[in-house]
Design a protein that fits this description.
The chain is an alpha+beta fold. The chain is 43% helix and 24% strand. Strands 28-29-31-32-33-34-35-36 form an eight-stranded mixed barrel, surrounded by five helices. Strands 7-6-10-9-8 form a five-stranded antiparallel beta sheet, sandwiched between helices. Helix 17 packs antiparallel against helix 18, helix 18 packs antiparallel against helix 19 and helix 20 crosses helix 21. The termini are far apart.
């Protein structure tokens, strides 16, 4: 439709006027209808129903009557258009005056129309909202998901009713709106045209409904509460009756409880009067029954306690009041010690209406226990301090691990031993972390896998063990694991590197000679046992025993230092003579043994023995001394001479003894007959030990003759052994044996005592000379023994002459010289025996003023044939004369020797030319022969000068 109402033109309210048309119709028109080119009107045909028609053209009418006089145009039926226009017009008018608002959407669900009411309710410009979708306008919703169901209805073209949603108004308040909508479709094509709907503000309704719901809910709650209260009142009434009954029971129970409770109790009211008390409090505080029966106040009780000297002063009472809180203002706990030593713990609990409850506990025992506990804690603290000090200062590393292999504690020695950083010594550190760190710095066990698998797992498994762990840094640590009852283990780590090295050295020393480095007897025996096992499988071996000839003389004259160097040099020569598979051992002193294994026959051992004799005969140059020694050798073979190490050594030793007996510097093989000789020597040893106890020894005396007067000046005492079966045994046979078995010291002591007793019966001018062995000078009691012998016999010290060899001075010379000076101060004379056979005689003559020098018989024997011997005798006698020392020539056997001795100036002679050694009983006759002066016997002497 063009123009007019159909085009949407806005006009004032229509004015209906009756109009008679040339066709008899009535016209509904609007003002200014004359301007229209087309308009609608209602025509009423004659005798017909009025219809709406559309007229196009120009009308002529009377303005005063509004009657159309004429119409030039076309009139046609437009009922539908008029109806549509009228509906829309009515809708718009209704929308503008309605309390709700109206809206329309196009087919794209975008708003095309809002009534004016929307702007009033929502507070937005409706024109600005045209063209927006539902979601655009819903953007101010608190929850966009709230709109999903509504959008689903729109997209599905479904009608919706009373969709309610919140909307935040621009004034900040949240309002509630409700909308409804109907989809529009084309009548012919059914195409979707859009939506038309209404909206309303239901905020007041919504809030009223919520308030109503809350009111109803409150009413329901009040009603339920009332019902519950009613029920509770019924129950309380029932309980009240029960409580009245229980109260009587509880009162009786309370009284019984108060009477029997361990605590004293007093309850005070706000005025301080006692309301309740029990018997215990009377006993604890020693309160009179009469006082407590009158319900006293706290102050009255306090005054009574002051009278009983419970408190020292009023200030103490006030302090007690403050601490116990009698005014009921505070809860307090207070301790008080009574004069009798009882300690009370007083608890004060305020009552709500004033007053308080006091309970009194006797805590004397607890305090004593607390004191004991504190003392114990102090002791434990001291012990812990000591333990910590011991743990920190113990030389061994100590660590404690739990059952999971995590560190509990370790000491400083442990961390220092393995250079552990601080973070690896804190509790909880896994043992594997510690081992990994030690591996990284190079002090882990060499075989770490075995350490972990065998030792560490064993410790965690509860197995105690001890082992040495070799570390990568070449240390050896002894680790001791001990399992704990609670799981885990305690371990100590001790660095035994030096100890093991020392042990190895000790083990080496235990199996080797310290001086020469050669295997010792123990090591030799072990080698022999190994070799004898092969002998049983068909091999042959030889055991060679040897000792150095004349070594004792070298040791005595040149000293032990030279002797030790000689033994070392001899050992070197012995090692050079044997094969690598053979063993050279030092058995002790100058005794050696060689184990020669895998030999074909005895000639091999004989060849080696001869080489040894030859090489040891060659001179040794020791510290500037030209020393010549030799060796004697004894050999035994296996299996012929035995299959036991002891038997082979014994047999080789017997062969050595035979070689020495037959003349030194030779070799002998073992023969069974040698055993008989050894047995004979052993029997002689046993007899010698028995001889001293059974007085089988006897002294013989050889005269000392003055070279000028040719008279006897004294005698040398010489010991003889009168064996009950063997007869007289030569000193050359038993003296070396006595020295060997250690019998020379007691035998020497007997000789000194016996010689003094017998010499005491001789004439006053005669002296007695006694030989002392080096072994006697090692005894610290030698001086006292000699002094005792002189005192017991009555012999004058000047008549005792002690003969010593220069070898005595080689051993601890300062001590020996001191002893010699003591003897000289006693009055005893000393003589150096065997002068000229040593190497240091002149130095000793300077260090000690001997009374006599005895020239060895070897020089006297060669006087007739050796100019050197004569020169030596002349030199010694001249030396003695210049030093003021007498000289005695030993071994004078011929007249020629006598003449030469006198010619050289010796002062004394001794030898078989004058007399062989004789027993003491023959001394008187000998004196008669050589000293012809008249003599007579005195009561205490057998022979004296007249």
């Amino acid at each position: 439709m063009e123009g007019g109402l159909a085009s949407g033109a806005v006009h004032d309210a229509p004015l209906t006027l009756p109009l008679m048309l040339n066709r008899g119709g009535i016209l509904w028109f609007y003002p200014h209808i004359d301007r229209l080119a087309q308009f609608c009107m209602q025509a009423v045909p004659v005798n017909a129903k009025p219809v709406m028609v559309s007229a196009r053209g120009a009308a002529q009418f009377d303005l005063s009557s509004a009657i159309i006089n004429a119409f030039n145009g076309t009139i046609f039926d437009y009922v539908l258009a008029v109806r549509t226009w009228m509906s829309k017009r009515l809708l718009e008018d209704f929308a503008e005056i309605a309390s709700d608002w109206f809206w329309e959407m196009d087919s794209d669900l975008r708003f095309t129309y809002f009534s004016a009411r929307l702007a009033e309710v929502v507070g937005v410009d409706t024109d600005a909202e045209i063209g927006k979708s539902r979601l655009d306008i819903a953007a101010n919703s608190a929850d966009p998901a709230f709109w999903h169901s509504h959008v689903d209805d729109l997209l599905a073209r479904r009608p919706f009713r009373d969709f309610t949603y919140p909307y935040k108004h621009k004034d900040g308040r949240t309002r509630w709106f409700r909308i409804s909508g109907q989809p529009l479709f084309d009548n012919e094509t059914q195409a979707f045209l859009g939506y038309r709907g209404t909206g309303s503000d239901i905020t007041h309704e919504h809030e009223t409904r919520l308030e109503l719901e809350r009111t109803i809910e409150a009413l329901h709650a009040t009603n339920n509460a009332y019902m519950r209260v009613n029920e509770e009142l019924k129950r309380q009434h029932s309980r009240l009756a029960e409580q009245e009954k229980a109260l009587l029971e509880q009162t009786a129970l309370l009284e019984n409880t108060l009477a029997n409770m361990d605590q004293g109790l007093m309850m005070f009211d706000a005025g301080g009067h006692v309301l309740v008390h029990n018997r215990k409090v009377i006993d604890l505080l020693d309160l009179p029954d009469a006082l407590m029966a009158n319900k006293p106040t706290f102050e009255e009780i306090a005054r009574h306690q002051v009278q009983m000297q419970e408190f020292d002063s009023d200030e103490q009472i006030r302090e007690c009041l403050r601490e116990t809180g009698i005014a009921g203002t505070c809860r307090a706990v207070h301790e008080r010690t009574r004069p009798n030593g009882m300690v009370l713990e007083i608890h004060t609990v305020p009552l709500p209406d004033g007053g308080a409850v006091h309970t009194y506990n006797d805590i004397t025992l607890r305090k004593q226990q607390d004191i004991a506990l504190r003392q114990r804690e102090e002791e434990l603290a001291t012990q812990n301090m000591r333990f910590d000090a011991a743990l920190s200062n113990m030389p061994h590393g100590l660590c404690l691990f739990d059952a999971d292999g995590r560190l509990i504690l370790c000491n400083t020695a442990y961390s220092n031993m393995y250079a552990l950083p601080e973070h690896l010594t804190v509790p909880g550190t896994p043992v594997m972390d510690i081992l990994a760190y030690r591996k990284s710095i190079g002090n882990a066990p060499v075989d770490a896998k075995a350490y972990v698998g065998q030792h560490l797992s064993g410790a965690l498994g509860g197995t105690a063990m001890r082992f040495n762990a070799e570390l990568e840094d070449e240390r050896v640590v002894q680790v001791t694991y001990k399992p704990l009852q609670t799981g885990g283990y305690v371990a100590t780590h001790e660095d035994v590197t030096e100890a093991i090295r020392t042990e190895a050295r000790i083990s080496h020393m235990a199996r080797h000679d310290a001086l020469t480095g050669l295997p010792n007897r123990v090591f030799l025996r072990s080698r022999m046992e190994d070799a004898l096992a092969r002998v049983r499988r068909g091999e042959k071996l030889a055991v060679i025993c040897l000792d150095l000839d004349h070594f004792k003389a070298v040791n005595d004259t040149l000293g032990h230092q030279i002797g030790d160097q000689l033994l070392q040099a001899a050992s070197t020569r012995l090692r050079e003579c044997v094969r690598e598979i053979d063993t050279v051992a030092r058995l002790g002193g100058d005794e050696f043994a060689i184990l020669q294994v895998d030999i074909g026959n005895s000639d091999q051992a004989g060849d080696l023995a001869r080489r040894l004799v030859g090489i040891l005969r060659e001179p040794f140059d020791i510290d500037g001394h030209h020393i010549v020694i030799g060796t004697s050798i004894g050999v035994s073979f296996s299996p012929e001479d035995g299959l036991d190490p002891d038997a082979l050594l014994k047999n080789a030793d017997m062969a050595l003894y035979r070689a020495k007996s037959d003349g030194r510097g030779s070799c002998r093989f073992f023969e069974p007959a040698m055993d008989a000789q050894l047995q004979e020597r052993r029997r002689l040893e046993l007899d010698l030990r028995r001889a001293l106890a059974e007085s089988e020894f006897e002294l013989y005396y050889q005269p000392l003759v003055n070279t000028i007067s040719n008279e006897i000046s004294g005698f040398e005492a010489l010991v003889r052994w009168k064996h009950p079966e063997r007869g007289m045994v030569s000193p050359a046979e038993f003296i070396p044996l006595a020295e060997e078995i250690g019998l020379i010291v007691p035998l020497g002591d007997w000789v000194v005592n016996q010689a003094c007793r017998e010499a005491a019966g001789w004439p006053d001018g005669l002296k007695v000379a006694v030989n002392l062995s080096p072994a006697q000078f090692k005894s610290p009691t030698l001086f006292h023994k000699i002094a005792a012998a002189l005192a017991n016999s009555g012999l004058s010290p000047s008549r005792l002459e002690l003969e010593i060899t220069e070898s005595v001075l080689l051993h601890d010379g300062d001590t020996t010289l001191a002893l010699l000076h003591q003897l000289r101060n006693l009055g005893v004379r000393t003589a150096m025996d065997d002068f000229g056979t040593g190497y240091s005689s002149l130095s000793y003559l300077r260090s000690f003023p001997f009374d006599k020098i005895k020239i060895d018989r070897s020089f006297i024997h060669d006087l007739d044939e050796s100019a050197d011997s004569l020169a030596i005798v002349r030199a010694v006698t001249g030396l003695g004369a210049s030093l003021g020392m007498a000289t005695t020539a030993e071994g004078v056997e011929t007249r020629a020797q006598l003449d030469q001795i006198r010619e050289q100036g010796c002062t004394e002679m001794q030898g078989y030319y004058f007399s062989a050694p004789r027993p003491a009983s023959e001394i008187p006759d000998l004196l008669q022969q050589m000293n012809p002066q008249p003599t007579q016997l005195l009561p205490n002497q057998r022979l004296v000068k007249a």
